[in-house]
Specification:
The complex is a heterodimer. Chain A is an alpha/beta fold. A 6-stranded mixed β-sheet of chain A has the order 3-2-1-4-5-6, sandwiched between helices. In chain A, helix 1 runs parallel beside helix 3 and helix 5 runs parallel beside helix 6. The two termini of chain A are 22 Å apart. In chain B, the strands form 5 sheets. In chain B, strands 3, 4, 10, 11 and 12 form a 5-stranded mixed β-sheet that branches. Chain B has a 5-stranded mixed β-sheet with strand order 7-6-8-5-9, with helices on both faces. A 4-stranded mixed β-sheet of chain B has the order 13-18-14-17, sandwiched between helices. In chain B, a hairpin with a 6-residue loop joins strand 15 and strand 16. The chains are: A alpha/beta, B alpha/beta. Chains A and B meet through helix 2, helix 8 and helix 9 of A and helix 17, helix 19, strand 15, strand 16 and helix 20 of B.
């Protein structure tokens, strides 16, 4: 039931971001504008072995009911964790029901290649920005109950890849199922444990680019003085990021000095998969004895 | 004498030597035109039809091939379509020297003047002051220049940089229209640029053999005091190493680059015929028959060219027929009958034969910003300011009713789309060849992205004028968002803070919120800025529909590239006052020349 609460909160937040569509203006130009500035949600759904049983069933039910409440004009994509991540449903129009059907059929039998799935999400977004429109708002929602198993960098790799996506103006929402995934906290745009509805609501509050007047914000004299000389990091136009010659931002080194260290050390390169699998099972068993950490944003 | 004084003297002597050595024959234009020496003792004579032949001038221009084709050649031919329509043979003559045409016109050798609207308007005052019967009456439009003429400049990128510089162009030729309108649109007044004039538009074998240059391209090569030249496109390509930047080698000029051609400014140079008022009144049926025959031949050319435009699907038999027809025209205008394909490209790509629909649009559409009335008003104002005429005198149109005088009413074809997709126009606008010509700015209130054309009527009138005149340009609509909130968030984060206080909408209460992340603010700014740019496009479409009565089919919005700049390009980088923030909340309309990227109707390969 907690999962349901969280998903409802996520829907409310995404809905607040939704373009204000004037029912009166439905001409071709309005449609063109809305198509260019729509919202595209890429869902990374963890169907790893650790989700087996009631956990997966519960997650599927909650996910399906949430998905049906999200506006149909959003574009959806589904990336699952088979092999090293699989683009199960590419971003496109009218994909909501398809995503729901596919999630309903998922079986929990994979490893947890979050980095691989994030790479697929990034490549898809870059292609879409290049070939369709750079002005869509991209949100990547990572549902997971576990740690990276496919990438030797481990949880640090997930952190690095999330940070790189954010540098490309992609919002990454980390959702820790069953008390896990908190290593994304402070790295993702937003992170919440699925059982804290209030925390989610606050974390996903609406953001405006501009303020109407100074009385919209509490701005002190000290703030104004600081702003006058403040040199904010440059933000290139998003169309430049979509240009074919643009270097993929993911290759840029990411400063992670301010983010918390991952709880797990990365698995060593060259370890046989059987060992990794065994280690994960042991880790999952041990984890079940420890109380999950709660973090306030 | 000190070293520096000696150096100054050497520089002075060198400069003087250079200016003396510049072998360019510049002409001083008569101001006003009616004071020109050849007009001093001129007297109007009646039009001479005693030989039973009508003489009609041509100039070296692709669309004049239409006249030659209708006449079956230059010589008087009683069996030609033109002669049969007029019930009189017509003798055609290429007269590129406009003053020579004016002399023939006054003396009655011919009742016709063949020029651009600007050329006819220049002569109108002088002719009417000589005799009311000489007043030119414009009877038909032949074409627009859509690539054949251009503007090249050294070491500058935009037209506004021409302030205080010197430009060379042909005297009393079609480029006067071009230079005038480019300078005006760049915000330059006549006195802010020096103009020098030469006799010819390009190298002319008939030019005086005096060891001097008489054309703009050679003037630019040989006179270092010049910054720019208006010239024909082949010269422009030679000067700029094929449309790039000249190096100084092989007839190029170091630093010379094309600023634009009439492929971009496709509604500036309009070629027309005019006749004497006395002849028009006495021989109106004959003049009308001339126009009818000309329009019929224009239609024939348009059909041939539309067939070529079908490329692989073209009717090969019709292409062969057109090539046969064009062979003598290549001989007359390009001095080489083998240059048939060049002639066809010239007629179909570098110029646009307008036909009946184009004439209707040009002469009779109300409020047409590039129509006959607007075109001559613009150029006459310039002539008056510069003393080329003493008083702007409008040239009369023959007053045809195109819907009934020359056949059935023409069905309006849907406006051709310049670009197939939004991605294509976006690529063109961002290409390395793109160069910004002009821009206008719209203001938006905070968080808003709506605009009504009625609130900016004058701006939209001007925008429509520019968009129409620069028919080959991309119109980029750049939206911008203010960066105050982004800076505020980043500054707070830099100070180690994690929250801020924001007023709850519609109340005086504040709530404490977590500071948003950079990508959240940036995404919101991207959307807002894109919506602002798009709002200008939507308002323009509404302006066309509601103010000018245009239908969806009559609008080509494919040339519009909407670009959301987010917070990347603020006017004020660190705004702290409401005025500074408002300055950042804006939409810009930027007209961009993208000639290399604009798809052309057909190319040389399609004619093989």
């Amino acid at each position: 039931m907690n999962v349901k609460h969280f998903l409802r909160a996520l829907f409310v937040a995404l809905f607040l971001f939704a373009p204000a569509v004037d029912a009166q203006e439905t001409d071709a130009l309005t449609r063109e504008r809305d198509e260019q500035t729509g919202t595209a949600i890429t869902i990374l759904f963890d169907n790893s072995g650790s989700m087996r049983g009631d956990k997966l069933k519960q997650a599927k039910n909650a996910f399906r009911s949430w998905l049906q409440t999200v506006p149909a004009d959003y574009k959806f994509s589904l990336i699952t964790f088979e092999e090293n991540g699989r683009l199960t449903i590419p971003l496109g129009e009218r994909t909501r029901d398809l995503v729901a059907q596919r999630v309903a059929k998922l079986e929990a039998r994979t490893s947890t290649p979050i980095c691989g799935a994030l790479r697929i999400a990034r490549e898809q977004i870059e292609k879409r920005r290049r070939e369709v429109t750079p002005y869509e708002r991209h949100v990547v929602v990572v549902f997971t109950d576990g740690q990276e198993t496919g990438d030797p960098r481990g949880a640090r790799g997930v952190q690095e890849d999330i940070a790189a996506l954010r540098k490309q103006t992609v919002e990454v929402v980390g959702v820790g199922f069953h008390g896990q995934g908190d290593y994304m906290n402070g790295v993702a745009t937003r992170f919440a444990l699925a059982n804290n509805e209030q925390e989610l609501k606050q974390g996903l509050a609406k953001v405006d680019a501009e303020i109407g007047g100074v009385d919209d914000l509490v701005v002190t004299e000290a703030d104004l003085a600081a702003l006058a000389s403040f040199n904010a990091p440059a933000v290139p136009p998003i169309s430049a990021a979509a240009a074919p010659e643009a270097e993929p931002a993911v290759t840029t080194p990411v400063d992670l000095s301010t983010v918390p260290e991952p709880a797990q050390t990365a698995p060593k390169k060259g370890i046989p998969f059987g060992w990794i699998f065994t280690a994960i099972i042991v880790w999952l068993v041990l984890r079940s004895f420890t109380k999950p950490k709660k973090k306030k944003r | 004498m000190t070293k520096s004084a000696l150096l100054s003297l050497l520089v002075f002597i060198g400069s003087a030597a250079l200016s003396v050595a510049a072998p360019v024959d510049y002409l001083e234009p008569a101001k006003p035109y009616k004071s020109a020496a050849f007009l001093k003792d001129a007297k109007a004579q009646p039009v001479d039809l005693s030989r039973g032949t009508l003489r009609v001038p041509l100039i070296t221009w692709a669309a004049d091939g239409v006249t030659v084709s209708a006449n079956g050649g230059l010589a008087a031919n009683p069996n030609s379509a033109l002669a049969r329509a007029l019930k009189m043979p017509v003798q055609l003559e290429v007269v590129d020297d406009f003053d020579e045409q004016v002399k023939n016109y006054i003396s009655g050798k011919t009742p016709f003047l063949r020029g651009t609207v600007g050329m006819i308007a220049l002569a109108a005052e002088a002719l009417t002051s000589l005799d009311r019967g000489l007043e030119p009456v414009v009877i038909v439009q032949l074409s627009w220049s859509t690539g054949a003429d251009g503007f090249v400049a050294k070491d500058i990128k935009t037209l506004a940089e021409l302030q205080g510089k010197t430009i060379v162009l042909q005297q009393n030729g079609p480029h006067v229209d071009l230079v005038q309108v480019l300078l005006q649109d760049a915000g330059l007044k006549p006195g802010e640029v020096n103009l020098k004039f030469v006799r010819d538009i390009t190298v002319n074998p008939k030019a005086p053999k005096d060891g001097k240059f008489h054309d703009p391209a050679n003037a630019l090569r040989n006179d270092p005091s010049l910054t720019a030249a208006a010239c024909i496109s082949p010269d422009l390509l030679t000067l700029t190493a094929g449309g790039t930047v000249g190096t100084g080698a092989e007839d190029t000029v170091r630093g010379a680059r094309p600023i634009l051609t009439t492929r971009t400014a496709s509604r500036v140079i309009s070629d027309v015929y005019a006749v004497r008022r006395d002849f028009f009144e006495a021989q109106k049926p004959l003049v009308q028959a001339f126009v009818a025959a000309h329009l019929a031949e224009q239609k024939r050319f348009q059909d041939f060219l539309a067939n070529v435009e079908k490329k692989a699907q073209a009717d090969a038999g019709k292409v062969a027929e057109f090539k046969k027809l064009a062979k003598p025209l290549a001989g007359i205008f390009l001095q080489d009958e083998a240059a048939v394909n060049d002639y066809i490209l010239w007629a179909g790509v570098d110029s646009e034969i307008v036909g009946l629909a184009g004439n209707t649009e040009f002469f009779t559409t109300p409020n047409n910003p590039v129509g006959f009335d607007a075109t001559q008003s613009r150029v006459l104002a310039y002539y008056e300011q510069t003393g080329l005429v003493t008083k702007a005198q409008k040239v009369t149109f023959a007053g045809w009713s195109f819907g009934t005088d020359f056949g059935p009413v023409v069905k309006v074809e849907p406006e051709k789309r310049s670009f197939a997709t939004a991605a294509e126009v976006r690529r063109a606008a961002d290409s390395k060849d793109a160069s910004k010509l002009f821009s206008y700015t719209f203001k938006f209130p905070a968080k808003m992205a709506e605009i009504r054309w009625q609130d900016y009527r004058e701006v939209f009138d001007t925008m429509h004028e520019k968009v129409t005149r620069y028919g080959g340009a991309v119109v980029q609509l750049r939206g911008h968002a203010d960066n105050f909130f982004y800076n505020f968030v980043q500054m707070k984060r830099a100070k180690g803070e994690a929250s801020y206080q924001r007023r709850i909408e519609g109340s005086s209460q504040f709530e404490t919120l977590s500071l948003p992340t950079a990508e959240e603010v940036a995404n919101s700014a991207n959307k807002l800025s894109y919506s602002r740019g798009f709002a200008v496009k939507q308002a323009y479409a509404q302006y066309l529909r509601e103010n000018l009565g245009k239908t969806q089919d009559e609008m080509d919005l494919s040339r519009f590239d909407v670009k959301g700049m987010g917070i990347a390009d603020p006017i004020v980088k660190s705004p702290t006052t409401p005025e500074q923030r408002e300055a950042n909340m804006r939409g810009e309309m930027v007209i961009i020349a993208v000639e290399a990227e604009v798809p052309v109707s057909f190319g040389a390969d399609d004619l093989k």
